[in-house]
Design brief:
Layout (H helix, E strand, L loop, with lengths): L2 H21 L2 H8 L5 E5 L6 H17 L3 E5 L6 H9 L6 E6 H10 L6 H4 E16 L8 H10 L5 E4 L5 H13 L4 E4 L3 H10 L4 E5 H10 L3 E5 L14 H4 L7 E9 L4 H15 L2 H10 L1 E3 L4 H22 L5
Parallel strand pairs: 1-2, 1-3, 5-6, 5-7
Antiparallel strand pairs: 3-9, 4-7, 4-8, 4-9, 4-10
Helix pairs in contact: 3-12, 5-14
Length: about 325
């Protein structure tokens, strides 16, 4: 073998060794091991609401999948703005993720002066569930269907109230759409999350709410709340006897919420990919799908790109509705 050929082989060998060493660097090892410590999942509402219930189920299964604890961190207040801002300002390392809602991402920017722009400062991971909403009443309210509610509301404008998880949240917007399309004036009573909203609804301090079936179903089944209508375009198989609002007297009404996971903008693409793969794997587990379906939530699981498009489309849609109807933060 000539000396030139030997020199070429020695150089090739050194390059191969260097490549192998690079693959074993601490950074590469950390990427392979991600996550190698606990992950925080921020929820922008207090414990007990629909978002929190879904977040805890997903956190439980991610913990089992990774062997690392996923801790749900409830940061309620200001209709979800506080938790959104905390999530957006967190370190972009994949160890903080955010279980967001339609309200957090696509509605609040039109209603609040926010210190962050959710579409710019948070990176989509995956839509997690589509959530059916239901109009429920305290049984002490003397109505048994939507037509009776509309008639009573027209007799007593501003005297029948409905609770929500906060100004600008999906329950608030669902109620304002009802006011507009039914030609009534229900009084809005905002709370710091759906948990306290439901507590006062069951206690009779408020009369109605428009909120997720995830949270409302157990109270409907126990008789503590009366379901008047589901807000989606089709009836729920969990409440087949309950009509849609469109069927019950408000033609054209349709409202569906969603919960999805995001990370702070700047989180490395590889980690976004690993988070997306893990979430979609969890959502394919038969036990998870069964539990979500039993709550009235439809498992999703999308690419980051598809979830980003959903957020942008919903933001444009709700911006138009909010402007046309003159909805303002209170």
């Amino acid at each position: 073998m000539n000396s030139g050929r030997r020199a070429w082989l020695r150089q090739a060998g050194r390059l191969a060794l260097a490549a192998g060493a690079a693959a074993c660097t601490p950074a590469a090892h950390a990427e392979d091991a991600f996550p190698d410590k606990p992950v925080r999942m921020i929820v922008a509402f207090p414990a007990g609401g629909g978002t929190d219930i879904v977040a805890r189920l997903i956190a439980e299964r991610l913990t089992a999948l990774w062997g690392q604890q996923v801790i749900v961190d409830n940061r309620g207040g200001a209709g979800g703005v506080i938790g959104t801002e905390i999530a957006a300002r967190s370190a972009p390392d994949g160890y903080t993720i955010f279980m967001a809602t339609l309200g957090n991402m696509s509605i609040n920017p039109h209603l609040y002066k926010m210190d962050v722009d959710p579409s710019r400062d948070l990176a989509p991971i995956s839509n997690v569930v589509d959530v059916n909403f239901v109009l429920v009443a305290n049984p002490k309210l003397p109505v048994h269907n939507v037509k009776e509610l509309i008639a009573l509301a027209k007799q007593k404008p501003g005297q029948i109230n409905y609770s929500s998880s906060g100004v600008g949240g999906a329950p608030h917007l669902a109620g304002e759409l009802f006011n507009d399309m039914a030609g009534v004036k229900l009084a809005h009573i905002p709370y710091k999350g759906s948990g306290p909203s439901f507590t006062d609804l069951i206690g009779g301090q408020v009369s109605l709410t428009f909120d997720s079936l995830v949270q409302a179903l157990p109270y409907i089944q126990s008789g503590k709340l009366r379901a008047l209508a589901v807000l989606a375009s089709q009836r729920s198989p969990l409440l087949p006897q309950v009509p849609t609002l469109a069927e019950a007297g408000v033609p054209g009404y349709s409202f569906t919420n969603w919960f999805g996971l995001l990370a702070p903008a700047g989180t490395p693409a590889k980690r976004i990919g690993k988070l997306n793969a893990a979430v979609r794997q969890v959502l394919q587990e038969p036990a998870v799908r069964e539990r979500l379906s039993a709550m009235g939530a439809v498992p999703a699981g999308t690419t980051p790109e598809a979830f980003g498009r959903l957020i942008r489309d919903e933001r444009a849609k709700w911006g138009k509705i909010i402007q046309e109807r003159g909805i303002r933060a209170q």
